[in-house]
Hints:
Oligomer: single chain
Distance between the termini: 52 Å
Largest sheet: 6 strands, parallel
Amino acid sequence: MSATVLSGRELAAAIRTETAAKAAGLAEAGTPPRLAVVVATADESSAWYVRSIAKAAEKVGITCDIVDLGGDTATETIRTALADLSADDTIHGIILQTPLPAGAALEDLASAIAFEKDVDGANPLSLGRLVAGLPAFAPATAEAVVAILDHHKVELTGRHVAVVGRSTVVGKPAAHLLLDKNATVTVCHSRTADLPAVTSSADVVVAAVGRAGLITAEYVRAGAIVVDVGTNPTDGGGLAGDVDAVSVTEQAGGLTPVPGGVGPVTTALLLQHTVRAAAVDR
């Protein structure tokens, strides 16, 4: 039996519809939502992603400013740009796009983003507030993991979830969001002994490690739910997940596709966060 496809497209469309309605209301009230995306890379795949955010923002009534600083920008120039945008009352959301120039660290630079405008949860302060249960925007990809499970009515209370990957962008915040749903969470990483034994004991596996095809059938118990966060570029210009879908689909009970799973929900949540930030700013 093949795994049920846990698509994110329907959920993303619903989020966008709600976001567009709220954006229109804010604009009518004199606070048109505005998002700034700071880019300091010449990476073409990154440029494609930024263009897709700008296009999606326009469709829901959010102004999106792409602040292109160039691929050789000094770290302090990036920091100054983020600080200036944070101080700009007309800007409601700020995203620092990766990759960054050599020597620049996301965690360091993102601290210059006001946490109220940190719509992708990149500022370490946002992660700290998230862990403490205080208001903050979660990293959109991490939130998308939980949102897609909720959408497909996957029960998390009391279930064992194995998160493969411990980044501050996805793995760690996703683990905390899953804990908030009363799941029992194991965070796995490159030093985890016998990774297949750990993940194959879980009811839900979240693959967020950035290695194409790492998770195969042996990592998944029969009937488990698998969320594939991977977006690894292929030689043909497409995307490959962290899950070997051909292998896992015969083993899992449900599997998010790549593309069309977590990705669309992530973008929709970024826009939703921007509108929420603008609403607070009124």
